[in-house]
Design a protein that fits this description.
The chain contains 13 helices and 16 strands. It is α/β, with parallel strands linked by helices and 397 residues long. It folds into two domains: 241 residues, Response regulator (Rossmann fold, 3-Layer(aba) Sandwich); 143 residues, Rossmann fold, CATH 3.40.50.2300. The strands form four sheets. The chain has a seven-stranded mixed sheet with strand order 7-6-8-9-10-15-16, with helices on both faces. Strands 2-1-3-4-5 form a five-stranded parallel sheet, sandwiched between helices. A two-stranded parallel ribbon has the order 11-12. Helix 1 runs parallel beside helix 2, helix 2 packs parallel to helix 11 and helix 5 packs across helix 6. The chain is globular, with a radius of gyration of 21 Å.
């Protein structure tokens, strides 16, 4: 695996005059740089930009005639109107050839329905996991590298059952993501014999969640499942539960997995466990090492999925031999799945060369990419537990 620095990859090419500015194409990166997951998105964006820098370093994209530039935009995670306007600017102002994103399910649905699909622009989300996205009218333009919460609900229910937790209370952020995961988990957990004592939505942006926690605790549940956001209401729920002693066992969905949670609570939440998309494969280890060499120090979720999402757009264009938006869409599934030579993280140069030579690839990337159905990701999940104040992966499912 060739090593390079993300900050120098573009600069080195342009400084030597290899390519001119008018031979640059843009890929949009739209994530919630503000909002309830803002601590996660810098590393997600940098991971996508790592794939872009890797492709540029190869000097093989479009026969070496083009550079790729990332253009960031803020989805806010929660404001559908602002997210749609930001995506519109990417598409009409920056003329992006594809969009890596969005992140949260509600704004992703809005962008796809209002902007991406009507303009014929591929979107590859690394983290929008609502089952509702499986049924949107996307004309084949929406994909995701993280699996649906229909699967996460089952995986998490299996984890909870195997750990001997017999009853839970569920609180979820009041949006498509929270409701979808809560419904999927409840159905799977009850089917396995578990008891759900109460299911209650919570609103983000509140300063005090004592009333919500009081109602959840009154249910008598053994543990509290929190399907919210790590930098917003979900964290507030846990804070109130700790302050009042209402719960000492927390079950987390992927939106709650992040370094900012353990930085806030440390050993106070030892024993807390949950799930997030990811793997412990050699390819992920290669990606993680490459990311850390390039200054991406965090261990939060969706870094690998973001790298893969950007890589798919790049490789689909190379397979098409064109940066035409429709041609990119037509080749996403071709590069993501068999047949073809398997391509892991850090191997974009080899993939670009194979495609340039007329060959086929089966892109595995950092997260074992396999797209099924209407652009759905098969995916795997890490089971994580807070030990000594830090998240540790204890299993992969």
């Amino acid at each position: 695996m060739k090593k390079f620095m993300i900050g120098t990859a573009l600069a080195a090419l342009t400084a030597t005059g290899v390519m001119a500015q008018d031979e640059t194409v843009n890929i949009g990166i739209i994530l919630g740089f503000t909002g309830p997951i803002e601590s996660l998105t810098p590393d997600m964006a940098a991971s996508a930009e790592l794939a872009i820098a890797e492709a540029n370093k190869s000097e093989l994209f479009m026969g070496g005639d083009m550079l790729i530039a990332p253009v960031r935009a803020d989805s806010t995670c929660v404001d559908a109107a602002a997210a749609s306007a930001a995506a519109e600017r990417l598409i009409t102002g920056d003329n992006v050839i594809g969009i890596m994103g969005a992140d949260c399910s509600g704004v992703t649905t809005a962008i796809a329905s209002n902007v991406g699909v009507p303009n014929g622009v591929v979107m590859v989300s690394p983290s929008a996991t609502s089952p509702a996205l499986s049924d949107i009218e996307d004309n084949g333009y929406f994909f995701r590298t993280a699996p649906s919460d229909a699967r996460q609900g089952q995986v998490l229910a299996d984890v909870v059952t195997e750990r001997g937790v017999n009853s839970v209370a569920i609180t979820y952020t009041n949006n498509d993501y929270g409701l979808g995961l809560a419904d999927a988990f409840q159905a799977a957990y009850e089917a396995a014999g578990g008891s759900v004592e109460i299911v209650a939505a919570h609103e983000d942006g509140k300063g005090d969640y004592s009333a919500e926690v009081g109602a959840l605790a009154a249910s008598g549940a053994e543990a509290l499942a929190v399907f919210g956001y790590v930098d917003q209401g979900g964290r507030g729920i846990i804070q109130s539960a700790i302050d009042t002693g209402a719960f000492d066992t927390f079950i987390l969905g992927d939106g709650m997995i992040g370094d900012s949670l353990t930085e806030n609570f440390g050993p106070d939440i030892n024993g807390t466990f949950g799930t997030a998309p990811g793997s412990d494969s050699e390819d992920f280890a290669n990606f993680d090492a490459m990311a850390k060499e390039n200054g991406i120090e965090g261990d939060g979720p969706y870094r690998g999925e973001s790298y893969d999402a950007a890589a798919l757009i790049i490789l689909a264009a190379q397979a098409a031999g064109s940066v035409d938006r429709a041609e990119i869409q037509a080749n996403i599934m071709n590069v993501a799945n068999a047949p073809g030579e398997q391509i892991g993280a850090g191997e974009l140069e080899r993939a670009l060369q194979i495609l340039a030579d007329g060959g086929e690839i089966d892109y595995q990337g950092a997260t074992g990419v396999e797209l099924i159905g209407a652009g759905e990701a098969a995916g795997s999940y890490r089971e994580l537990e807070v030990m000594e104040g830090q998240f540790s992966t204890v299993n992969v499912r």
